[in-house]
Amino acid sequence: MSQKNHEGKKSARERLQEQREKEKARARRGRQAIVAGAVVVVLAVAGGIAVWASSSSGKPAANDNEVAVPKRASGGGRPAVPVGSADAPSTLTVWEDFRCPACRQFETGFRPVIHELEDSGRLKSEYHLVTIIDGNAGGQGSRNAANAALCAQDAGKFRAYHDLLYSHQPPEPQDKFGDKKYLLQLAGKVKGLVTPAFTKCVNDGTYDRFVKKSNDAFATSGYRGTPTVLLNGRDLSKEKGGQFGPADLKKMVLDANKAKQPGKKSAAPHTGASPQDKHPGRSAAPQGELTGKGGAPQGELTGRSAAPAP
Hints:
The protein is of the alpha+beta class. The chain is built from 9 helices and 7 strands. It has 2 domains: 1-53; 81-306, Glutaredoxin, CATH 3.40.30. A 5-stranded mixed sheet has the order 1-3-2-5-6. The chain has a two-stranded antiparallel ribbon with strand order 4-7. Strand 5 (228-231) and strand 6 (234-235) form a beta hairpin. Residues 29-64 and 267-299 have low confidence and may be disordered.
């Protein structure tokens, strides 16, 4: 075989080998492209799930440190519920417990004057709800009643339900307010209050943490018992040697408001219950007076449920 023919055959074999190598290379690139495409698809699908999950989850869940705040209530270090015109020139600050007998005496005796001053735009009240009796006597009635009152605040009916709770306050050793069914039953006396939202709020204890925060604020306030009542920052139990009655409160407010414009008058809320609706077996205090244990009118801000000693 001539040298020329040998080189020709070799070149043909080399060309065939090169062609085969090229085909193998193309096949490898094709397989890599398919695998790469599959990876891209998987990542795209996974990314779609992540985006959908995060966008469909809505608002982040509340953590254990967050405190739900009722409508128009104030949170902060001293949670409170406002009643009356926000721009009223005088402010009544009330720390009280729904199971506290002395608080009921205060509410029964001073309520007509407080309502009159609130409705005329001369006074706004700020209620701080505490749970002293739960701590002293056991039970959950102070907390549950406070939560229910805050649920009523969401419905714009705090004052009506607040007053109703005091009118139906059980004897201090009894924890009847610990029964949420009873609290809902009482709410039926306030027109339009019982709704699915209110019922759920009461049963879920939506504002239990708000109540606890308020009680914690009271524990560090330096006040020793309930009711603690202040007018424009002045402790009324220290006025007139403790002989302070509803007429004195009205005079003090009017004196403080001289030369000041009243706030926007607030219409007296409809309670849906008779003003004379009383707890069975209890007599009402004479209007504008407080009642002592024997039922004799005292007409003064005396008697408190003591907070536990620190």
